[in-house]
Design brief:
2 copies of one chain form a homodimer. By secondary structure, chain A is α/β, with parallel strands linked by helices. Chain A has 4 domains: about 300 residues, Rossmann fold, CATH 3.40.50.261; about 160 residues, Rossmann fold; about 80 residues, Dna Ligase, domain 1; about 120 residues, D-amino Acid Aminotransferase, Chain A, domain 1 (2-Layer Sandwich), CATH 3.30.470. A 7-stranded mixed beta sheet of chain A has the order 9-8-11-10-12-13-14, with helices on both faces. In chain A, strands 23, 28, 29, 30, 31, 32 and 33 form a 7-stranded antiparallel beta sheet that branches. In chain A, helix 3 links the parallel strand 5 and strand 6. Chain A is flat, with a radius of gyration of 32 Å. The interface between A and B is large, with 79 and 80 residues.
């Protein structure tokens, strides 16, 4: 899996996490300054190596002997933390290079995030880093932590240290990263390493993914991202690493991308955020949209126990909390099954007569420690359940200790008896919210709202389902497996159009030629006079459709230039004239390329297939229900090229309207395989030809059984890539 | 508004909230017992009246002289709190009656919630209450609070008292109610009164709504409901009271109603929870689905300042938090506008050069108190914004005090300068989460997650939009305004069918008769032989559709018994025979009533209108996009009968597909007024005729302009009401 270049990369990042000697440049005696805070955090965190403050104006800082410059340090330095202002930072980099410091954390702000001048300094920094071959995290960042007990590195400026554990974090925002670190302490989430990426001039999230792949303590990866550098590399890495170490991403910055001037369906729908969604679902990244969900999943994935199925037991001391939790289970697609009579009987034998020994099991507010313990053990022991949610609602703070003790005893007893079922706790105790539950080393995921455990279980199940897809089965069908696909000829069509007319829409003739090369032909014959149209209709066979062919006019139906179900030569001739007249009336006669004479297609399902090109993410392929519904109801799914067999399958099956393709209410099943083939071919086409800026097959009719698809209308926009 | 019966009701509930003398029956010396806890809470809460413990086994309890029985108390008692077990409760009620106690809170559990035996006791209790004419809250409840400083009544068993303020709470669950009370203390939500409804044998949520309407301290109403007793009264009260005092409801118990055996579209979609949604949106109740949202809105609505529009300013000390907040604003349909250059310039004049004086405004992590204050004041002073969200993310706990002081100073200065804009605070300070912000008496709504303020603002704006609908404008069009509506004749059709055949589907003939009486006729002529069919077709004019008429067969298209676009007598005749043959092949010839010959309808929009009858909520009317999309895409909206003009307008306009009715992309606008008229007529019909158990107009074609609607297929199920 990881080649030697990956090993080299990992090796280059080690000094950030396992340094023996750290220089703090800009260490200061001024309380509250970043330099003073960093030094304080490094020391109070219990760093196991040595710390050398660098400050030209002090001999001793906070009891440590200081040096005036990096150059004055005699021994090798593994890591420099730079807390000086931006305008001084560049010269420090030179000194790092002179002292052969392999790794630098640059906390200083004042770079590209502040405007043009800062961007200039950042570019100089980038150049220097590359020249000197050293690695840099930041600038404009919050630092790095490694909570491994052998090193205890806190090179940040928050003194809060969460417990050591399986979660590693990378954050584009220092503030969000710091908040998570502090929340992790409160919520008992074990952290391995933490990196604030800042402006990621050198080290990016992709580098960290490769590092964490090798790092044995990292088992769960948390990302807060505002941008995704090199999405292709990210996709490759995330797909590989995520199968062993779940990646949970909070991607912020969902902006409304401006609609393409040409008003393509695909472009309008495909904002940047759709591309992010497509990317994440293609490589199994678990996307969350709130901090709360992010932390909730971090907690759940940190525990190695996973639900084997959707059957959830609910144990509560309040009927209301049980109902809210059951509601959330149903909403998340989980099942709250009836308990087997024997289990209910067991529960009834030790619970109060006022209790409800069903599912949810309500032990009632005044349950004893013994009852909490026995109920927990009983439910964890039942084969009828895949997971247990325990809700505890505190009416009187004095009751909390015995309830907590009972729950812990119950879990312990069940584990000793061999139960492997996961437990999710909802501890609704107002004055006692930060209680932690650890049972013989197992950290029990603990929440405070009754709707969170169900959400968490659903996400765990989805992740396991994704993971269970056999890796071998995911593939890009090689071009040789796709018969009749001639990309070189397709390239020629686009190049010729670009050379002749510059950027713009292809003519109907060119579209037919282009799609013909990949064997997804646009239906019908282009004709330019009434006689030719009639002749085409006779050849095709009645009934036919006659439509305006124009690369400039988008909404042909609205203009009344689409005539359907024409049954003889006379009406075809009339249709030709009607279309011409309508165009003349609209003053657009010069935009007419001719008319397209097509056989009528019936009995199929009208769909849309499109492709657009995101300047950052590359080609994005869309599939959706066709016609006017696509825009209005938004039933469209996206995938980034190159599409794999799994991607196309998932895109189509995730459509709300998918049942319409599978033999819905007596209709025939449609050729889903044929549609998948079209998507794969379009992916190849736009991958191979960067000149294609936008492509719409709309509608494309998916026919029943294995009759394939018919493209009824299509548009292609070509543009040299740099003009996009 | 409130008549004298309302005054009497309010008077009858006063002893629960303003008692002068309380007897605690079952007051106990046993620590941890409910009786002991209630007594303790009453005393520690600082109740201003007198408390008389009732216990046959003690002379003094907790320092208070006790009496052996209610009968031994010489003076009048305003309120009895009963904390004895269920089997003793009934005799205590008799004693209450003997002593003329007007109000009883029965905390004891062991009634209907525990099964059949308990239900029996509960019935006896109900009977006794009615006989004696006293008012009762409970049983199986958590008690009552009134935090008015003149009374300070805590007749519950949690000692936690939140601050006094504008929110009153009713809860079907004692546990959820107690949690909210405790959370209110933590979150600084001011509470007026609190009632745990328990099994609501006597006092219901509706009674409390009437009480709170009159209660001057109650300004915001919070409901946790598992059932809604008397939904019609609730609707009437909530609509009236909610306009002055927002009602925020957490309705739990969303169950999947079993599908109607007959498999009607409407019935399958119209689970009980759809009825709740319909009810709440019809009477302006703000529905939430989580405790977190419930509390967040309680906080926001407690502050009388409301955003005047959608333009939000974001002030943050962390770029990441600002991005997350801006994302949530966009998601909630709010606007984060560019700041006017003068405002940005003002901000830049006092913020760090590293800060971002745009919107979001990032003051950066190390901002001073002065900078926090000035930025807050500047943004609150800008006319370009309707509301301000301030996000503070703590990197070091030592910084929190000055940030908080700065924010408070800024708000104060802005208020003094006349700013009326609301402020929502997101205080992301891990070790300092429970800080409260009160500025000269104004409680600032304070949250901890960056996505909550936007959600809150959206809900506030929706509420104001609902409230601004003029009350006068909401009306049930009286029957005389609906021409050609003959309910008595419609009744006769149903009664005759029921009398002749018992419960079941109406025949096509009966459906035509029934719908004819309300002037929403089912299109076409019913015929029973081929000649008659041809004759009907000639009369109607070609092309026609010929369809199986059978009250027993649902899916006519799937059976191949719908023939469209028939253009002459010969094909009509053939169609008749085909339909008959298909039925014969399927062995269902005896189920054929004949065939319906209809004109072909084109150019309209296929919709569905339906009605079903919920045993609790009554008739529920549905409208949606027609055809197969209704079930698959779920684009249906519901309303409870009787539908007002506002209801039908909202139901139709809330459809995702609504733009298809309004002249979408060059299509003609459809007759929405005609569709509204159909909904009103169906509402009248099912209201007037309880025998109609289910009704589907599917499809109904809405025609362009003011051409009305055409019912193309319809089914009606009749059933005597008690059989439903």
């Amino acid at each position: 899996m990881a080649g030697s270049s990956s090993d080299r990369l990992t090796e280059s990042l080690k000094p950030f996490f396992f340094p023996r000697r750290i220089a703090v440049v800009g260490a200061s005696r001024e309380k509250g300054s970043i330099g003073a805070r960093v030094l304080d955090c490094l020391r109070s965190g219990g760093f196991s190596g040595s710390i050398i403050p660098v400050n030209p104006h002090a001999d001793v800082i906070d009891g440590l002997p200081a040096v005036p410059s990096l150059l004055a340090i005699p021994n090798p330095i593994d890591l420099a933390v730079i807390a000086v202002p931006a305008h001084l930072a560049l010269s420090v980099i030179d000194k790092c290079a002179a002292r052969l410091v392999p790794a630098v954390i640059m906390i200083a702000a004042g770079f590209a995030e502040t405007g043009e001048r800062g961007a200039g300094i950042e570019q100089e920094l980038r150049t220097k880093i590359q020249q000197h071959g050293l690695r840099l995290i930041g600038p404009n960042c919050f630092g790095v932590m490694n909570l491994d007990p052998t090193i205890r590195l806190n090179a940040t400026y928050t003194p809060v240290l969460p417990p050591f554990g399986p979660v590693s974090i990378a954050s584009d925002s220092g503030g969000i990263g710091a908040t998570v670190i502090m929340a992790a302490q409160r919520l008992n989430i074990g952290i391995s390493t933490y990196v604030s990426l800042g402006n990621h001039v050198d080290v990016t999230v992709n580098d960290l993914l490769e590092y964490w792949e090798q790092d044995v303590t990292t088992q769960v990866i948390l990302l807060y991202l505002e941008t995704i550098p090199d999405p292709r590399r990210f996709r490759q890495l995330a797909e590989r690493i995520g199968r062993r170490k779940p990646i949970i991403a909070l991607k912020a910055g969902r902006t409304t991308a401006g609609q393409s001037a040409a008003g393509s369906h695909t472009a309008a729908l495909a904002t940047n955020d759709w591309a992010v969604d497509a990317l994440f679902s293609q490589c199994g990244v678990i996307r969350v949209s709130t901090l709360e969900e992010w932390l909730a999943l971090a907690m759940a994935f940190s525990n190695h126990r996973r639900p084997a199925g959707r059957r959830v037991g609910i144990l509560t001391n309040s009927g209301g909390a049980g109902v809210l939790c059951a509601d959330s289970c149903e909403k998340e697609g989980l099942v709250v099954p009836l308990l087997p009579p024997s289990v209910s009987a067991t529960l009834a034998s030790f619970l109060s007569p006022l209790a409800a020994p069903n599912n949810p099991v309500d032990v009632i507010g005044l349950a004893t420690e013994e009852q909490h313990a026995a109920a927990t053990e009983t439910l964890l022991g039942s084969d009828a359940l895949d997971a247990l949610i325990i809700l505890y609602l505190s009416i009187n703070v004095a009751d909390n200790d015995q309830a907590a003790a009972g729950i812990i005893r119950g879990i312990r007893a069940a584990r000793l008896a061999g139960s492997r079922k996961p437990v999710y706790l909802c501890w609704m105790a107002e004055s006692d919210r930060d209680r932690h539950f650890t049972v013989d080393g197992e950290v029990i995921p603990t929440y405070h709202a009754p709707d969170i455990p169900a959400l968490v279980i659903r996400r765990l199940l989805s992740y396991e389902a994704w993971r269970e897809q056999s890796v071998e089965d995911v593939r890009l069908p090689p071009a040789r497996e796709l018969p009749q696909l001639d990309v070189s000829q397709a390239k020629a069509v686009c190049a010729k159009a670009l050379a002749e007319r510059g950027p713009g829409w292809l003519t109907t003739e060119e579209v037919q030629a282009l799609l013909g090369t990949v064997s997804v032909p646009l239906l019908g014959r282009l004709t330019t006079d009434p006689d030719e149209a009639v002749q085409a209709a006779e050849t095709i066979g009645y009934p036919v459709a006659v439509k305006l062919a124009s690369r400039h006019i988008l909404h042909k139906t609205e203009l009344g230039t689409v005539c359907l179900n024409l049954t003889d030569g006379q009406v075809v001739r009339e249709a030709f004239h009607t279309i011409k007249d309508r165009l003349a009336q609209a003053g657009k006669l010069d935009l007419m390329d001719g008319v397209l004479v097509q056989p009528m297609v019936s009995g199929g399902m009208e769909m849309l297939v499109g492709a657009t090109r995101d300047s950052h993410f590359g080609p994005l392929i869309a599939v959706g229900l066709g016609g006017i519904h696509v825009e209005l109801l938004g039933d469209v799914r996206f995938g980034l090229a190159p599409l794999t067999n799994h991607d196309v399958s998932r895109m189509i099956r995730n459509l709300n309207g998918y049942p319409l393709l599978t033999g819905y209410r007596g209709r025939p099943a449609m050729d889903v395989g044929g549609l998948e083939d079209v998507l794969i071919r379009m992916s190849y086409l736009v991958e191979a030809i960067p000149d294609i800026s936008q492509l719409d097959l709309n509608p494309i009719i998916v026919l029943p059984d294995s009759q394939g698809c018919k493209v009824v209308d299509a548009r292609v926009l070509v543009q040299a890539p740099f003009e996009h």
